[in-house]
Design brief:
Blueprint: H1 2-51
C-alpha cells in the first residue's frame, strides 16, 4: 500500500508540474497574440486615418 501511495503522489506531482508549464506557455502565447493583434489594429487605424 505504501508503494502505491508513493507512486500516486509522484504521478500527481508530475501532472501538476506539466499543467503548470502548459498554463505558462498558454499565457505567453495569448499575450503575444493579443499584442500582435493590437499592433495590427493600431497600424490599420493609422493607415485609414491617413487616407481620410
Amino acid at each position: 500500500m505504501d508503494f502505491v501511495d508513493v507512486v500516486i503522489e509522484e504521478v500527481v506531482v508530475s501532472v501538476f508540474i506539466v499543467v503548470d508549464d502548459v498554463v505558462e506557455v498558454v499565457v505567453v502565447v495569448v499575450a503575444l497574440v493579443s499584442f500582435t493583434l493590437a499592433r495590427l489594429f493600431c497600424i490599420s487605424v493609422l493607415i485609414v486615418g491617413k487616407r481620410i
